Amino acid sequence: MARFVVRRLLLLVPILLGLSILLFVWVRALPGSTAQALLGERTTPGAVDRFNRQYGLDRPITTQYWAYLKTTVRGDLGTSVASRRPVTTEIRERFPATVELAVAAMIFALVIGLPLGFFAAKRYGEFFDHSSLFLSLIGVSIPVFFLPIILKYIFSVRLGWLPSIGRQDVLIDAEHPTGFYVLDGIITGNWNAAWDASKHLLLPAIALGSIPLAIIARVTRASTLDVQNEDYVRTAKAKGLAPSAIDRRHVLRNALLPVTTIIGLQVGILLGGAVLTETVFAIPGMGSWLKEAIFNQDYPALQGGILFLAFVFVLVNLLVDISYGLINPQIRVS
Amino acid sequence: MSRALRFTLALSAVALFATAAAFAATSRTHASDTFVFGTEGDPVLVDGALVSDGPSLRAVNQMFEGLVGLKAGTTKVVPSLATSWKTSKNGLAWTFKLRQGVKFHDGTKMDARSVCFNFGRNYKLPGYLQGESTNYYWVTVFGGYAKPATGNPGPDKSLYRGCKVVNASTARIILTRPSSSFLAALALPSFAIASPTALVKYKADAGSVGSDGSFRPTGTFGTSNPVGTGPFKFVSWRIGDKLVMVRNDNYWGTKAKLKKLIFRQITDSTARLQALQSGELDGANLLAPQDVPSVANSSSLKVLSRPAFNIGYVGMNQKQGPLSNIKVRQAVAYGLDKKAVIGAFYGGRGQVANQFLPPLVEGYAKKGVPDYSYNPAKAKALLQEAGLSLPVTLEFWYPTDRPRGYMPDPPRNFQAFAASLEKSGFKIVPKPGPWRGGYLSGVQSGKAALYLLGWTGDFGDPANFLNVHFGAAGDLFGFNNPALFKALQVADAEPNLDKRTKLYEAASIQVMKFLPMVPYANASPALGFKKNVKGYVPSPVEVELFTPVSIG
């Protein structure tokens, strides 16, 4: 097991190195330039030259990459051109918001998706099964930019139950030791702040979690159907075990295995979806920040941000693989 | 299992109902002396000298003041920290009499020394803070630095020569050549007077240069300790979230009605609209044109319009094809159906422009401007007079993306104009391109014959429109007209405001006779507010002051 983990961690090095080269070339291949993006329509060629010199953008690309690599290895991801702040500071401030949102979305997807898929399989071919299939079809096919607008229109504009923007009410002045607002409220004993932050999370979590929910429901349904027909389930039935005990001990446990893998892959979808969700809910996370970075052609922010997210993605999948081994003894043995 | 299913369903229903009930109980209104304004972005810094973007200037404007200000809703220069000013005979020395007894938020006195400190700060900025990306307005208005970094303009290019403390309440700014546009520029939040004590204490200009060549400000003046004399004081700023200000109870003038002012950044315009509709915002900047009707028709909201301070035009490069001939340029002007374009694509927020200056800018000519209303027959006749055989082929460049205030839908503007030009004896070759992916750079380097472009004013002075575009030979329009250059130079240097306005009126007409471009649109940006908000006066330069604003 230890060797497996070490090997996977070592594999990270070539992955990140390759990715950094790709990213470096890609952001420079984008039409236009940072100078033009920031100086706008008032740019003069002289101003562009001065800007490029100031930011070292006039040097050969290999020299630039080498300088970039050297600083990156030291844990310095450069300075955002748009905000003039270190990219690492931006990530430190924004990443918790994205994690909080992704976790909330995943909880939403699991809490609804798992039972939905499981019961659909139990009621295979019946009305509940069909309607849950239909629901998950809507879940995957509804355009991601559309759902938040509808949710906000109903729950914020019409009913006024939930806030439509941000992470916390503007009038709450809470401490943020960790940057995870719900957690911060709980740690500091500021229940009002924690409650308010949870309210702000609800609509974005539903919007972001709808696609993972649909996928989880479908995978759970399919794997439950498979497991139900396994020999050991039939044996358990023949043994006269109560149906609820069979479900709990034999069906559910085994049906959840493929779902674990799916959760790991969903992290990518969640991080990608966060770009849009954070933008429409005005959440200052990694997604909305990267969107702005693309808009401003903010090279250091784009490179640093995406590299960091890729690192997180690879790491999460490693964790999923490890936990998969823990859940399923067969894999551990082999 | 059906029991378990039923149980789960019942449980979720109860949970949903309970949450809904709890949420319904929460109030979404706040105290009426707190105003939450939705802005289109975060400030970069709350330090006027080092910013040029709208969100930064708006924030700076609430907490800082300059020597002069603008009368609300206009571009007319009025006294602010200076109560009066006069110019020396040669137009080089500007003496400002300062308001007495004004204090910065940190309790220090505002006097002539603080004024000269602030101007000196800009002039002597360290190399890494010089240039358009950081110190845009200084470069644009004053043009040079005491110790320029490589490639930056030096004292020889500078309009600013120095600042002299005559006595505690009199400061004198000395220029290297006469200019009057600089007075209007002083109303910009970028030239606001900051507390010298705070600038030094919080290291406003400190920074380090990284190994990749980029610089990093390390001081905290512009991020957490901005100190000015304005009607609001800084409380806190969380990037991406909110900027909080409170009323300055020691303000020298009329104190703000609001106790607390909060700017919330929401880049997405639909999100801004929905937050306004849900009551989370009291006001929102920049409504998208398509959202304006839904705000206007709402029973609880209202729309306010900023006076147009921009100009959309069809540029003509005189180095391209037959465009050096005035008759051909006139034919283009007559061949553009401006009214149809404004009517169709500006969502009721545009007006047809007849000159380069927007109506609110001093120097806008009320009469005597040549009329180039759509007239295909006249256009054809002019082309024949020029000795050309019809149709005359011209390349027409247009951007495929980036709607701008003065041009909400570039491709459709192009299509309509191309159609009307083809009826007027032209054959149009479309040249589409992405704004940043070659369009703008191509147009600016003089490759386009006809093109769609525009301008939004930096500050309320005709020089910022006319001199910037037609004051010298450039690649954008590709012409050399010494008479026009001279006229604009004379107008800019005239210290008497009335005379200056007259000179600019004449220059504006002269431009329309020479016709380097065909102006066609002035567009008004829209803001949304709760119906019970009072006192907000939209300004053409977009940085409204919140002092007179109240709710209820």
Question: Would you state the CATH class of the largest domain in chain B?
Answer: Alpha Beta
Structural class of chain B: alpha+beta
Shape of chain B: globular
Question: Residue share in helices of chain B?
Answer: 25-40%
Sequence stretches where pLDDT stays below 50 over 5 or more residues of chain B: none
Provide a descriptive summary of the structure in words.
The complex is a heterodimer of chains A (334) and B (552). Chain A is built from 14 helices and no strands. Chain A has helices at residues 2-29, 34-39, 45-54, 61-73, 87-122, 127-141, 146-158, 181-187, 191-228, 231-238, 243-280, 286-296, 299-327, 329-333. Chain A starts with a helix and ends with a helix. In chain A, 42% of the residues are buried. By secondary structure, chain B is an alpha+beta fold. Chain B folds into 3 domains: 26-41 and 231-306 and 526-551, D-Maltodextrin-Binding Protein, domain 2, CATH 3.40.190.10; 64-214, Dipeptide-binding Protein, domain 1, CATH 3.90.76.10; 310-523, Dipeptide-binding Protein, domain 3 (Roll). Helices cover 32% and strands 22% of the residues of chain B. In chain B, the strands form 6 sheets. Chain B has a 7-stranded mixed beta sheet, sandwiched between helices. In chain B, helix 10 (326-335) runs antiparallel to helix 12 (376-385). The chains are: A mainly alpha (334), B alpha+beta (552). Chains A and B meet through helix 2, helix 3, helix 4, helix 5 and helix 7 of A and helix 1, helix 4, strand 9, strand 12 and helix 8 of B.
List its traits.
heterodimer, A: 334 residues, mainly alpha, MetI-like fold, 2 domains, B: 552 residues, alpha+beta, D-Maltodextrin-Binding Protein, domain 2, Dipeptide-binding Protein, domain 1, Dipeptide-binding Protein, domain 3, 3 domains, seven-stranded mixed beta sheet, six-stranded mixed beta sheet, 23 strands, 32% helix, globular
